[in-house]
Write a structure and sequence with these properties.
seven-stranded mixed β-sheet; 23% strand; transferase; 266 residues; single chain; Rossmann fold; 10 helices; alpha/beta
Length: 266
C-alpha cells in the first residue's frame, strides 16, 4: 500500500480538504520556488490544487502530475484545460519517469499519507536534475490542526477506537519538527530548509465541517464509517458540541499549520 488516505468521492474531498489545499498552494509555491520554462512534477496531485496553481503562477514548460487514487486522477483530468499539464495514475514510491527529468518535484499534503515516505522522497530526488529542487509540505496533525484535533480528541474520550484513531492521526510520517528535514538530508539532498506555513480553515456551520467526515471521506471519515448508527449519532452529537462550544451553530475559523521542507539535488 503506497497511500493510506481514504478517498470516496471527489466532491466530498473538496469540502473536506481540497478547498484548504488551494489556499495553501500559493504559500508552498513561494517557498519551493518556480521559474518560467521549467518542467515540474506534482507528486500526489489529488484533484489538482497544486497542479493548477502551478500553471497560473509561471509560464512553465511542462507540468506532470501523478496520484495513486483513480478517483483523484479522473477528477483532475476532467478539470484540466491546459495542454502543458499531463496527469496519470502512478505510485509516489515508484515514479514512472527517467532520472533527472524535472527541474522541481513538489508534494503538497501527501507524504504523511505514504507509509514509505522516505522512499517517496528518494524517488523525487531521482527524477530531478542536479541543481533542481525537491519540496514537500505536510499538515502538523499533532500541534497545528485544532479543528481536526477537536474531533479526534472528542472521539478519544468516547471509546477505545477513538483513542487508536488519535494515536494514528497525530503521529503520521513526516509530521514531527525536523522529521522531514532529516529525511531530506538522509536522501542526499543539500541546502535543506524547513519552515512552517499557516492558513485558516473557515466553516459556515457544523454541517459544513461535518458533512464530508460523515460521508466517510479521509481518515476521520473512515473511522466514522466503522461505527454503527447509534455510535455515529453519539459521535456526531459530541463533535457538534465541541464545534459549537456553548454558542449557537454558525461560522467558525481555525488556524492550521503545515511543515514545509525543500532541498537541492547535488
Amino acid at each position: 500500500m503506497t497511500s493510506n488516505f481514504n478517498v470516496r468521492d471527489a466532491n466530498s474531498y473538496e469540502q473536506l480538504m481540497g478547498r484548504w489545499s488551494q489556499k495553501l498552494a500559493p504559500l508552498f509555491i513561494d517557498f519551493a520556488g518556480l521559474a518560467d520554462g521549467e518542467k515540474i512534477l506534482d507528486v500526489g496531485c489529488g484533484t489538482g490544487s497544486l497542479t493548477f496553481a502551478l500553471a497560473r503562477t509561471a509560464n512553465l514548460g511542462e507540468i506532470a502530475a501523478i496520484d495513486y487514487s483513480p478517483v483523484f486522477v479522473e477528477e483532475a483530468i476532467r478539470r484540466n484545460t491546459d495542454s502543458r499539464i499531463k496527469i496519470r495514475q502512478a505510485d509516489a514510491c515508484a515514479l514512472p519517469f527517467e532520472g533527472g527529468t524535472f527541474d522541481r518535484a513538489l508534494a503538497l499534503l501527501v507524504l504523511h499519507f505514504v507509509p514509505e515516505s522516505s522512499k517517496a522522497v528518494a524517488e523525487m530526488r531521482r527524477v530531478v536534475r542536479p541543481g533542481g529542487v525537491v519540496a514537500a509540505a505536510v499538515w502538523d496533525h499533532l500541534g497545528g490542526m485544532p479543528g481536526m484535533r477537536m474531533m479526534v480528541d472528542t472521539v478519544a474520550v468516547l471509546n477505545e477506537g477513538g483513542r487508536q484513531l488519535r494515536a494514528r492521526y497525530c503521529f503520521q510520517p513526516m509530521m514531527q519538527p525536523g522529521e522531514m528535514k532529516r529525511t531530506f538530508l538522509e536522501q542526499g539532498l543539500v541546502d535543506v530548509a524547513e519552515t512552517q506555513m499557516m492558513i485558516r480553515m473557515d466553516y459556515e456551520s457544523f454541517d459544513d465541517y461535518w458533512a464530508p467526515i460523515a460521508a466517510g471521506e479521509g481518515p476521520l471519515g473512515k473511522y466514522v464509517a466503522t461505527l454503527d448508527a447509534a455510535e455515529r449519532a453519539r459521535t456526531a452529537a459530541a463533535v457538534r458540541d465541541a464545534y459549537e462550544a456553548g454558542r449557537p451553530d454558525g461560522p467558525r475559523s481555525f488556524a492550521n499549520v503545515a511543515w514545509a521542507c525543500r532541498g537541492i539535488v547535488p
